[in-house]
Amino acid sequence: MTDLVSNPPVSRISLGRLIVWGLAAAIGLALLFAPFLFTDVRSQQVAARICVFIVLAASYDLLIGYTGIVSFAHTMFFGLGAYGAAMALKGMGASWAALALGGAGGIIAAIVLAFLIGVLSLRVKAIFFAMVTLAAASVMMVLASQFSGLTGGEDGIVYTTPDLFKPATKLLVDADGKVLKLFGVSMNGKIAAYYFVFLISLFLFWLLLRIVRSPLGTVLEAIRENEMRAEALGYRVVAYRTAVFIIAAVIAALAGIVWAVWLKYTGPDTVLSFDIMIDILLMVVIGGMGTMYGAVIGVALMSLAQYYLKDIMEVAASATANVPLLPHMLDPDRWLLWLGILFILLVYFFPAGIAGTLMKKGGQQ
Amino acid sequence: MNKQISALFDRIGGVYALPIILMVIALPLVGSFPTWVTLTVAGLGMGMMIFLMASGLSLVFGLMDVLNFGHSAFISFGAFIAATVLAALAVWVGADNWMLNLLALTAAVGAAMLFGLVAGWAFEAVIVKPVYSDHLRQILITIGALIVADQLVLVIWGGIPISVPKPAFLQGSFIIGDVSIEIYRSFAFLVGTIVFTLLYLVLNRTRLGLLIRAGVENREMVEALGFRIGRLFVLVFVVGSALAAMGGAMWGGYQGLISGELGSQVMILVFIVVIIGGLGSIEGSLLGALLVGLLGNYVAFIFPKLSLASNMLLMMVILLWRPYGLKPAIKR
To answer: CATH for A15-359, among 2.40.50, 1.10.10, 2.60.40, 1.10.3470?
Structure first.
């Protein structure tokens, strides 16, 4: 906001901004060609997860970074979308109608809950709201595990997705009627599923960018910076906050539906658990709050760390096997310990995160 | 009509009558009187344990506008330290002599509280102090501390749940006629009552308490009068952490089997209690804790599946009725 004032209208695009955009574009390109670049199953899993989590983290950034609302219920909405799709696909069979119906159900549930929570508690302090959402999310988690007839409890739900996404589906065929191979990758349902995930994620991310660039986004930033002033200017703060909470909830639910389709499994560990909430929070803060592109960088970094840092820690743990306590701290399962410490240091010294710090640096030139 | 109801409500004790009203409503729903007594005592005992954990959080928030999401770390550590001490004193714990039992229990709870005091002081200095008056960073940094603390619990005690030995004199229940009352819960109720009374007396009858209450109401004015509110705050923070560790120790004994998730599970109840009660007052925390404990136990008996959701519903209803909670010390 301030650099809008200090820079002349024809502002040079700063180096920091270029770096951030470049990084985001590189990640986007890598994701676009992921099935061709990384052919093993694990890498495709990582790529799809990055796509979905970029949307999830960016929609969370809309709350925490652009509006200054701290919510711990974001995975709840993610889970509502995923469970809605999963229950319909399980109950009605693998059809597009089931997916649409279940997804719509999940989205409506998300809207209703977000509206209730917003109206009930967005009037009071940010910190109060954080507590209410935390309580709501954990109750949802308990409900999901207790109503096991519907949700499969701790085991979750396994189902099949529409025929298009089955590995046996032939997307393109060559002259012999076999699955066509492009650059060594067979054009089967797996590719279709990946591009389904990629394109929807891309669209939702674009939508989020549009939202923060719109007049609505400007009002949200005004509320974040000075609530009283925004209210005095005639903006109904509670209405705006509730609206943005609902928008973020719907986008999270959509991401949940996409994730459910990709995984063909929905359970508490994949969509509802508090660990995911912590992941999203870390991703947004590490990447940089209030930048949107920060979410992209944060998600990519965290996901890569999650999958590959563990390998390094494994080596470190076995190297220090004789020292007391240290091998336990270096155990691959304890990677969150180190991330937590990193997170605290980051909030102290670089509260703007990677993208925010870079952009600010460039702005001073 | 509406006015008459609210006047009547105020005459019978206002919000303080709510737990009693809840008990009366529950009696016909539960059906049998002995069961009702058992559930009520259980609820009160559970409520008191939650109160121990919630009071510190609420006061810290009231005094300094700091909400410590890492509070549950003290609960977990308290439970695990007490369990370790009890396991080390297994001979005393199992002895058929209530003096030795009590000694072991005191040692365990004392160790937990000592940890709470020291760790609370360190936590305040390292984690909380740099981010006073910045809510967003406060939430983020205390969440970060919570992640680290939870992981440290796993590093030290491992991921396998450990069992907490219960001192011999607290096992079993009293049987009076048809009514059976669990001894441990009655004991928890007793301890909670003592702690509440002490806190109440300190806050309302001493100069220190006067300063704390004044600080909750208007920090700047107290500072302007020349008192060092920062030191008071550290004191409240440290005592609050020690109480959380104590509550954790009691909770661990009540559960019998504790795992690394203990802190975050209880924390949900603690948050609900603090929200219901209103931030900054121990009376509010007590009220909220009793309501949550009672409702949780009644609903667990009547509709077992809804037990946790019932507390959520209670919170929603109360927030609709009083957006700042039942008995807030401050309305900011």
So the answer is: 1.10.3470
Give the tens place of pLDDT for each residue, A168-227.
666 666 666 666 666 666 667 778 888 888 999 999 999 999 998 898 888 888 888 888
Give the list of residues 6+ apart from residue B320 with CB closer than 8 angstroms, or none.
A120
Amino acid present at B210: L
Per CB-CB distance under 8 Å, the chain B contacts of A350 are: none
- For chain A, what are the domain ranges? 15-359
> Which of B178, B184, B174 is closest to B33 using CA atoms?
B178
Vertex B301 angle, CA B299 and B307, to 5° = 35
Alpha-carbon distances of B143 from A285, B121, B151, B274, rounded to whole Å: 12, 18, 12, 18
- Angle, CA A23 vertex, CA A19 and CA A26 arms, to 5°: 135
Contact between chains at B155 and A334 (C-beta distance less than 8 A): yes
Nearest Cα residue to A245 out of A286, A282, A216, A271: A216
Write the CB contacts of A10 (distance below 8 Å, at least 6 apart in sequence).
none
CA distance A218 to chain B (A): 20
Phi and psi dihedrals of B133, rounded to 5?
60, 20
User: A4-18, A96-110, A137-151, B276-290: lowest mean pLDDT where?
Assistant: A4-18
Enter the tokens of residue B224: 């302007």
Contact list in B for residue A339 (CB cut-off 8 A) is: 147
**ipTM beyond cut 0.85:** no
Token reading at B276: 């219901």
In chain A, which residues have their Cβ closer than 8 Å to the Cβ of B271?
Answer: 131, 134-135
Across the interface, whether the CB atoms of B154 and A339 are under 8 A apart is answered no
| Nearest chain A residue to B308, by CA | A139
